[in-house]
Amino acid sequence: MKGKIADGEARERLIMWIRRRMAEFGITPQALAESLQYDRDHPPLYRDARGNEWNGKGAMPHWLSAARNAGVNPDFFRIDPAPQASASDSSNEPKQPDLFG
């Protein structure tokens, strides 16, 4: 295994690197946990092809306002909510969406 890093060692190095960056930028574990919880509580409503997202709160981001100013309806970027499983759907098997009908 000459020149290669074992998975466990790579993981430890990554954890140390993340901890150093968090300390460098003053990010506490609690602040990180709160940010992750906020993201869970406020999922994005809009997403473009480049991965830019907006949850509908605050000012409209530049990428979305630029698209709107170019004549694109912002609803084009709206993310469809995940379908809720109904009580009558007892099958847990994934279903292929019907793309042609």
TrEMBL record:
Pfam families (UniProt xref): Histone_HNS (PF00816)
Designated name of the protein: H-NS family nucleoid-associated regulatory protein
Listed InterPro entries: H-NS_C_dom, H-NS_C_dom_sf
Region (Disordered): 75-101
Residue stretches making up the DNA-binding protein H-NS-like C-terminal domain: 46-79
Biased composition annotated in UniProt, kind: Low complexity: 80-91
Entry superkingdom: Bacteria
Organism the protein comes from: Paraburkholderia denitrificans
